[in-house]
């Protein structure tokens, strides 16, 4: 009991100390990567030049997705953040369907695209929570789109967290989300909730499981291999890869570069 109280008090204090500190890293990170005038050039700073399309009548969206998280060897303090932070940088280039003509239609299609590739963004490594030392069970995507640019562009910041609904890590996410919304002019991604809707039995599977069966058994996790085509999404067996083929296709075809920052 006393031990639990002590741990609670420490967690609370860490919460107080860390909350005002953390956003500075995140604000800086977001500011450096997205902000300068929201012109197209800075968004492409670390990408290769756009390859000429074989299909001249198609419009491809240039998407930079950055997946954040940690692993058990990372320091349990602010040193884990900053320019060398553990992350996965992805370049995705999906073709916009001809039916998406207006700005609203393009944004709607991109929202759907991001939703469709959720499993691929999550099940690609044994991710631990970006903010603490627990395994990651959920991802939260913070997206910004610029569909009027040529080519249309989007950025997605994907956060692996232990719990996106309640607790200190969920609180960090909401602070970050608010800051990003304020600076980018895009609406916030997360609802301001502290209520746990999920039942304990419904805790989502960890990132380090198969993208199809999501089997938490160690034996299944030890067999995970990345899809040979995109080298991203992980499966425990060829059977699982086959069964997920129709869902995964959209992401698989869009992935152009997979760059791990995994020191
Ligand atoms: Zn956490
Ligand atoms: Zn499987
Ligand atoms: Zn693939």
TrEMBL record:
<feature type="region of interest" description="Disordered">
    <location>
        <begin position="183"/>
        <end position="202"/>
    </location>
</feature>
<feature type="transmembrane region" description="Helical">
    <location>
        <begin position="6"/>
        <end position="27"/>
    </location>
</feature>
<feature type="domain" description="MYND-type">
    <location>
        <begin position="210"/>
        <end position="252"/>
    </location>
</feature>
<keyword id="KW-0863">Zinc-finger</keyword>
<keyword id="KW-0862">Zinc</keyword>
<protein>
    <recommendedName>
        <fullName>MYND-type domain-containing protein</fullName>
    </recommendedName>
</protein>
<dbReference type="Pfam" id="PF01753">
    <property type="entry name" value="zf-MYND"/>
</dbReference>
<keyword id="KW-0472">Membrane</keyword>
<keyword id="KW-0812">Transmembrane</keyword>
<dbReference type="GO" id="GO:0008270">
    <property type="term" value="F:zinc ion binding"/>
</dbReference>
<keyword id="KW-0479">Metal-binding</keyword>
<keyword id="KW-1133">Transmembrane helix</keyword>
<dbReference type="InterPro" id="IPR002893">
    <property type="entry name" value="Znf_MYND"/>
</dbReference>
